[in-house]
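Dear support,

We are seeing what looks like truncated structure output for some complexes. This example has two components. We would appreciate it if you could run it in full and send us the complete token output so we can diff it against ours.
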Amino acid sequence: MSEREIISVTVQRGGPDTPQRLQVFEVPAFESQTVLDVVSWIQQNADPTLTYRFACRVGMCGSCAMMVNGVPRWTCRTHVNKVLNGGKIEIAPLRNLPVIKDLAADMDPFFDKWVAAEGRHHPTRSRDDDIAAINPEQPERVVASSGIECINCSICYSACDTVAGDPDYLGPAALQRAWTLYNDAKDADKDTILDAVSGKGGCHSCHSMGSCTAYCPNGLDPLSAIAGLKRATTQRFFKGRAK
Amino acid sequence: MTPFHLYMAQRLSALVMAPFVLVHLGVMIYAIQGGLTAAEILGRTQGSVFWFLFYGMFVVAVSIHAGLGLRVVLSEWAGLRGTALNALSGVIGFGLFALGARAVWAVTAGGV
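Here is the complete output from our reference environment:
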């Protein structure tokens, strides 16, 4: 190879205490280069003060999501070749979340809503009981299993225009978690889950635009999960509460 | 009224409106074949309990459905919250009902 190609990378810098600005870096192109590799190259070779977040580098931890050319992506599994636009890339922190600094978004609202949607286990048994046998082919279990590969990367939350318009909206990931637990035979408090997703900013705020499902890097379907919660709450409205 | 109740009100009002819209459009297309005057329309609707109930319920469903739909638009696009949101969407809902009820009354009960 003769002279190495150069990528022009525009990075959003700054945070709540410093004015946000765009900074352009010239980054050498490498074979099989990911967007996270580009960000790491900048931090290691051009500006050590660049702040960003990553951990596993293999698409399991959900730490490195950023806006790439205006679209939320997991940067460790996004090849530069796939997103290069005329030799340029724009990288910014995740949308719909506060910025801590540079490319690091504050994930607190995302996880707070996870808790607000009752995205926690309500056990049916104590540690002294035997483990309940679960048939993996049971229809409810199949539905629950379809949502459990969520890595909490917040890409769906950043892609969601309803979150952008309604800060109270719980968002696709938290609601999908609620739907997973609702279908889990080992969860004992389904009414509490439906109550949690029926309040202000609950599943009924969703406009079914489907950006969550379109952008989920793991191929999950929060849109259908939210539709399931709408169905379940509506059925409870007509049939009355369980028990 | 919880957000869930508002959601149910909007869905149920849509359910009510769907057949009304189809009948309204169907009758309109059927009735204008060969021309139609205002006097002919009023001749059929005035004094008709059926058309009073038909368009009366239609107006109620539209007022609920449009009022709640615009409430969401005002919240997400205009950033209205709390009392301002409830007041403005209430004015829109009741305003639509007043305009629609006046028209229904004029067409079905007027002249009786």
